[in-house]
Amino acid sequence: MKNDRAAVESLFDRLYGDHRAAFEATRPLLEQTATLAEAVISVLASGGKVLICGNGGSAADAQHIATEFTVRFETTRRGLPAIALTTDSSALTAAGNDLGYEQVFARQVEALGRPGDMLIGITTSGHSPNVGAALVAARAGGLATACLTGRDGGEILARGLADHCLVVPVDSTARIQEMHIFLGHLLCAALDRAFTPASGS
Predict the structure, then answer these.
(1) Rounded distance, CA 138 to CA 21, Å?
(2) What is the pLDDT of residue 55?
(3) DSSP character at residue 159
(4) Axis-axis angle for helices 30-45, 173-195 (nearest 10)
(5) 43 Rama class: left (phi>0) / alpha (psi -120 to 50) / beta
(6) What is the C-alpha radius of gyration for the chain, rounded to an integer number of angstroms?
(7) What is the pLDDT of residue 16?
(8) At what angle do helices 57-70 and 173-195 cross, to 10 degrees?
(9) Closest by CA position to 137, among listed 196, 186, 168, 95
(10) What is the rounded CA–CA span in Å between residue 154 and residue 149?
(11) What are the backbone angles phi and psi of residue 122, rounded to the nearest 5°?
(12) Most buried of the four, 42, 111, 164, 173, by CB within 10 Å?
């Protein structure tokens, strides 16, 4: 295949422009993100843990963010308890086979979640039935709930399933995913600030 440098440069310019526009559209979420960060810090400081779930690219984001909680983001601090509900293939396939795909995350929330924990769901559309079911299960189990979504927030926003719902108000799935990982990194930076020991302490 021909390597068309001009075409790649044109794509770069278009995607970069779309990315910048998505950032500008996401900026109004700053106050809500700060409130979510405070809630997550409170959960972790009180001995709770964070469960994270999503499908496809959002599943990868769930794993990415959970890893930065448990291992590290930018500073050296203690590991923070987080579990991506997308990583256990035996649990996912058993729940999908025996209970239906809509229950693959809810069942894990029921088994692993405890009052004082938090569930963060990630869905670009806001219409993912299994993420919605997980949020319902979390509420029933006494967990705090949050969701990263996009477009108009979908059913999850309309049904009020999350205590904290960050809606990236753009239409492109790719741009929403880029903003979700940015918001995830912003949250991780806030955790670093809260849990990294002061120099010399």
Answers:
(1) 34
(2) 98
(3) T
(4) 50
(5) alpha
(6) 18
(7) 96
(8) 10
(9) 95
(10) 8
(11) -125, 120
(12) 164
Between 5-26 and 173-195, two packed helices, what is the crossing angle to 10 degrees? 60
Q: Please give the Cα distance from 118 to 166 (Å, whole number).
A: 15
Note the pLDDT of residue 3. Answer: 67
Query: Which candidate, 134, 106, 122, places its Cα nearest to that of 166?
Result: 122
Q: Is 72 exposed, middle or buried (0-12, 13-18, 19+ CB in 10 A)?
A: middle
HSE at residue 11, side-chain half, CA atoms within 13 A, is: 5
pLDDT at 98: 98
Q: List, in sequence order, the alpha helices (H) in the chain.
A: 5-26, 30-45, 57-70, 89-98, 106-112, 129-140, 154-158, 173-195
Q: How far is 70 from 82, CA to CA, in rounded Å?
A: 6
What amino acid occupies position 26?
Answer: T
Q: Across-strand partners of 145?
A: 119
- Spatial distance between the Cα atoms of 112 and 101, rounded to a whole number of angstroms: 18
pLDDT at 2: 62
pLDDT along the chain (201 residues), means of 10: 81 95 97 98 98 98 98 97 97 98 98 98 98 98 98 97 98 97 98 89 52
The dihedrals phi and psi of 167, each to the nearest 5 degrees, come to -105, 115
Asked if 35 and 182 touch (Cβ cutoff 8 Å), the reply is: no
Which CATH code, of 3.40.50.10490, 3.30.43.10, 3.30.565.40, 3.40.50.800, is assigned to 31-195? 3.40.50.10490
- Give the model's pLDDT for residue 1: 57
